[in-house]
Amino acid sequence: MRYHILLAIVLVALWLAVSGIYTPLVLSFAVVSVTLVLWLSTRMDVVGREHNPSLFSWRLPVYWLWLLWQVVLANVHVAKLVFRPGRVSARIFTAPAPQKTAIGRVTYANSITVTPGTITMWLDKDQLQIHAVDEESADGVKSGEMAAMVSWLEGTGSKRDPS
User: Fold this and answer.
1) Which residues span the domain enclosing 7?
2) Rounded Cα–Cα distance for residues 145 and 163 (Å)
3) Largest pairwise CA distance in the chain
4) In whole angstroms, what is the distance from residue 85 CA to residue 80 CA?
5) In a domain, 145, yes or no
6) For 118-127, how does the pLDDT look when each residue is reduced to its tens digit (9 = 90+)?
């Protein structure tokens, strides 16, 4: 039951932070949405120890800020590629997924996908198949910095050590 309460708190906080509109109608939409997500999550049996919304604790906002900065940098890079299309050299490669939990690996794969210039095409237990628009975008993943940050987020590594 505590996982459901934590999930509800996280969902309400996220809704309020993203919405920015606090009229009775919008707040009623929030209640309906959070209730529906809680009900679906319970029916799908995805609320529990590993899917605990507080799993990442205080590290999650730190990670989000870091990821937001990476998205900004990647956007600038992709914008430059738009104006110099000759530099685009798409490639597909594999990279290790060193995270210890399933949610850590999914977070890593999704973080790669939301970063412009890269898309995770396939996720296996211990590796990812990634499409990158150019060598620099591929090097961003191959450096291991994002993998280290996600490992730090799940509490199994150091954010300074990409190995």
Assistant:
1) 2-43
2) 8
3) 55
4) 9
5) yes
6) 999 999 989 9
For the chain, what's the residue count?
Answer: 163
pLDDT, tens digit, 9 for 90 and up, residues 66-108:
999 999 999 999 999 999 888 899 999 999 999 988 888 999 9
Domain assignment present for residue 54? The answer is no
Residue 52 forms part of a structural domain: no
In whole angstroms, give the CA distance from residue 60 to residue 152: 10
Answer for the pair 13, 5: CB distance below 8 angstroms, yes or no. Answer: no
Using an 8 Å Cβ cutoff, are 126 and 140 in contact? no
Which has the closest alpha carbon to 51: 37, 62, 65? 37
Residue 84 lies in a domain: yes
Between 158 and 109, the more confident residue is 109
153 token code pair: 């987020």
| pTM score, whole prediction | 0.72
Kindly state whether residues 10 and 83 are assigned to the same domain. no
Structural domain count, the chain:
2
* Spatial separation of the C-alpha atoms in residues 70 and 108, rounded to whole Å: 13
- Could you tell me what percentage of the chain is helix, strand and coil, using 3-state DSSP and rounding each to the nearest 5? 60, 10, 30
Separation of alpha carbons 53 and 63, rounded Å: 15
Q: What is the residue whose two structure tokens read 């591929």?
A: 138
